[in-house]
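step=encode ok
step=design start
structure_in=
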C-alpha cells in the first residue's frame, strides 16, 4: 500500500509513528534484501516471519492487513514493522527471539520437518 492510500484509509495517525519507518524499511528490503549478522539470526528472522503468518492468517490470506491495509508481504518481512492490532512486534535478534519463545511459545516448535520415507 502506498503512503497516500494509507492516509486516505487511516488518516495521519500512522504518519507520525514508527509505522512510516517500517514502511520505508520494507521498500529498502525489496531492493537490497534483509541484513542479518549470523546464521542464527537468519533462522530467527525466518521463524518470526512464520510466526506473523500464524498470528494473522486472515491477513496473510487476503494479502493485506485487514486492520491497517498494509501489504502483507511488506508487513510480514520488514524487521521494524509491528501489527497495528498488537498481534506481533518488531523482528528481534536470535537471543531475544529464543527468550520470547521460551517465555510465551513453549508449546510451539518452528523448523523444517523431514518427510518420512515411504516403504
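sequence_out=
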Amino acid at each position: 500500500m502506498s503512503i497516500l492510500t494509507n492516509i486516505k484509509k487511516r488518516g495521519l495517525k500512522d504518519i507520525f509513528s514508527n509505522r512510516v519507518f517500517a514502511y520505508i524499511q520494507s521498500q529498502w528490503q525489496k531492493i537490497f534484501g534483509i541484513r542479518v549478522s549470523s546464521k542464527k539470526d537468519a533462522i530467527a528472522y525466518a521463524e518470526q516471519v512464520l510466526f506473523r503468518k500464524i498470528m494473522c492468517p486472515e491477513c496473510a490470506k487476503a494479502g493485506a492487513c485487514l486492520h491497517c491495509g498494509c501489504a502483507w508481504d511488506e508487513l510480514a518481512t520488514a524487521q521494524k514493522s509491528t501489527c497495528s492490532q498488537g498481534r506481533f512486534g518488531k523482528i528481534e535478534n536470535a537471543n531475544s527471539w529464543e527468550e520470547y519463545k521460551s517465555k510465551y511459545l513453549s508449546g510451539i516448535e518452528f523448523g523444517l520437518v523431514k518427510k518420512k520415507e515411504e516403504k
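step=design ok
step=annotate ok -> The CA atoms of residues 9 and 32 lie 29 Å apart.
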